[in-house]
Design goal:
alpha/beta; 110 residues; Rossmann fold; 4 helices; 15% strand; four-stranded parallel beta sheet; 4 strands
Amino acid sequence: MRISEIEPTVDEIDPEGPLFGKRVAFTGTLDSMTRNAANQATVNSGGKPSNSVSKRIHFLVLGMTDYSKVGTDGMSNKLRNAVELNDSGAAIEIIDENDFLRMADPTAFS
């Protein structure tokens, strides 16, 4: 399923939630869920998941990094792009998986 085709699986979405109306991208391997589950939780919280990082992204969620894939600096392409965009004036908040879990609506995982 394409990320743009994900539909909410909850009856109500809190418009006051921290992810509501926000674009969220993920990088690295998530510890507590699959990427598909994280994208679904984002949609269920009123957010918009994204496969790429641009100045339109609000949050980049960092999972565990595989240094054999990203090199010794530990920066994935998405993280590197987010840092470069922030350096040029974007406002991408880089958060870890636990921050994402706290921000997502608890019913988003049911």
